[in-house]
Amino acid sequence: MRLQPIRLILVIALFSTFLGREGLALPDRCGRVAIPLHLDSVTKDFEVTGSWLSMEAEGTFRGEISLRNQTGKSLSRLTVMVNYLDENGSILFSIPYQANLPNDKNDMRNIRPFSELHLNGPVQPGKVVTLDGRNLLSITNVPTSAEVPYWFAKHFEDGSALSTQIGQHGFRTDPLLDETPGYLRLTLPHPAEPFETLVKMRINEYGRVLEIKPGREGDTSLAREQFEALSEQLTKWHFFPGVENGYATSSDLYILVVFEPEHALPVRRCFLEHPDKYASKFALVTLQPILDSSDRWIPYYGGFPADGKMEPNYIEIGPPAIPIHQ
After folding, report:
1. Which residues lie across from 77 on neighbouring strands?
2. For the chain, which ranges sit under pLDDT 70?
């Protein structure tokens, strides 16, 4: 039977509505999503030309913002703090973005970007620079908008600096893993299938883990003795503390610990599909067993190796190189 054009359009429309409601056809939610970024209209030094969040394969997300330099001077360093907001305008999380010449690194003690864009030349007036940022967290809901509460720019020609704090929100960054003793030591049989447990950390203003509790009620993935052994190992981790409006503060951090089987292949994760199963934001820790050991596991934090000092994610790209005259 051949459907008439009007009936065919109606069938397609109803089918698309069904897919959207049931969440069966939402591949773009786990891809690259444009996020409206607001920069106070009083600020004329920068123009926002783009803002996105991308869900990475390991389940974390990566932010990108593009700004046009309207300061009238070349820039050797640029730091931009971005708050990501929910539908009510409340802060879900913040990401610090950093771009700099290799010899002009960030010297702010209370802001630590995990990603640093190494420029191969100053950002010229009128030119656009795209910054890449991460806080190594996973999320279960996409922000509806974003805002810039603070930015800092250093001029290349004379070394002078300009910074502006905007709006009433301020900013609030989550703890960022700084260092671990190395391997995680935990006597567990290597699983045939991956399994997970959610923990809740209390981290003080100096980055020390004070307390670890189960993140879910009734979680039976680990026996009591096993959970206590895991907690003992995680309390040895050290964090760059949470920061609120420039001051270190104690904070809670949820961590989803996934125990991987031997020889596990990479698995694409998207926690946006399970908003009721996890916390609204959390750090993903995957533990890979060492084959010849019954009690050593290699930790990965947000997809990055975490068996020692966590190094920044340097991105060696930037605007076209130009002659630099000293």
Report:
1. 100, 154
2. 1-28, 41-42, 166-169, 317-326
63: tokens are 């932010």
Place of tokens 């950093």: 98
Amino acid at 132: D
pLDDT at res. 317? 59
Distance between CA atoms of residues 28 and 35, nearest Å = 13
pTM of the model: 0.84
Q: How many contiguous H segments (helices) and E segments (strands) does the chain have?
A: 2, 24
Task: Report the alpha-carbon distance of residue 69 to residue 45 in Å, rounded.
Answer: 7
CATH T-level fold of 27-173: Immunoglobulin-like (2.60.40)
The pLDDT tens digits of the residues spanning 238-294 come to 999 999 988 999 999 999 999 999 988 888 888 987 888 899 999 999 999 998 877
Whether 83 and 147 have beta carbons less than 8 Å apart is answered as: yes
Do the beta carbons of residue 164 and residue 103 sit within 8 Å?
no
What span, in angstroms and rounded, lies between the C-alpha atoms of 65 and 155? 20
Q: Is 47 exposed, middle or buried (0-12, 13-18, 19+ CB in 10 A)?
A: middle
Q: Coil, helix or strand for 22?
A: helix
In the numeric block, the tokens 């999503």 are attached to 33
Instruction: Report yes or no: 273 and 30 within 8 Å, Cβ to Cβ.
Output: yes
* Token representation of residue 175: 């703890």
Query: Do 243 and 172 form a contact (C-beta atoms < 8 A)?
Result: yes
What pLDDT does 107 receive? 83
Distances (CA, A) of 209 to 114, 205, 233, 246: 20, 10, 11, 21
